[in-house]
Amino acid sequence: ALATVPAAASVGRPVAQFGAATAVAVGIASAEYTNWVCRRAGVGTSAYGATGGALSVASGRLSFMYGFTGPAVSVDTACSSSLIGSHWALRELLAGSCRAAVAAGVGILLSPDPTAMFQKAGMLSPEGRCKTLDAAADGYVRGEAVGALVLAALSLEGHIGGRDGDGDGDGDGGERASCLALVRASSVNQDGRSSSLTAPNGPAQQAVVRAAL
């Protein structure tokens, strides 16, 4: 929720002015918070554990806090969760089911267990360095981040919620929203069968890039 505030500020609109028809997509591929709470307090010690640890609530809580009635989903596709969430939000905008969308991603490391398991699986770099697109790549490094984007269709840029207060037809009440970037296209596919369940599939990844182009 806190990441949504600066995202809204970057387009020159407080969250309260987005309007009810706002969608929410949160990429979240970890339940480490639930595991952390259970370890510290014990299972079933609080009624809030049922909602606080549910991945679905990551998106639902934003809609609840800000009164958004557009579609809301929490997306878990591992490392690509926030990207897939953004793709979904773009499709909802194009379909006309919302006027704006908040696309967010969160990854917080609270338990050593996943890191230990990934290390045993050979996924993590022994050197502690990511070597993207390098023949010397020997794994990846886990990190933490929380971020959010505000998305709107180009034809609606400038009137994310609110009413036209200055008569210029842009629906912004006198100040245009800032457009920081344009998304020309996006595409999604799946690796399918590769050398293992978690191994990337080069041809499939090339195909998804070509599909977006």
TrEMBL record:
Key words of the record: Phosphopantetheine, Phosphoprotein
Top-rank taxon, per record: Eukaryota
Ketosynthase family 3 (KS3) domain segment(s): 1-213
Entries under Pfam families matching the protein: ketoacyl-synt
GO biological process, one term: fatty acid biosynthetic process
GO molecular function: fatty acid synthase activity
PANTHER family: FATTY ACID SYNTHASE, SI:DKEY-61P9.11
Keyword ATP-binding listed: no
InterPro entries membership: Ketoacyl_synth_N, PKS_Beta-ketoAc_synthase_dom, PKS_NRPS_Biosynth_Enz, Thiolase-like
Name this polypeptide is given: Ketosynthase family 3 (KS3) domain-containing protein
SUPFAM superfamilies, sorted: Thiolase-like
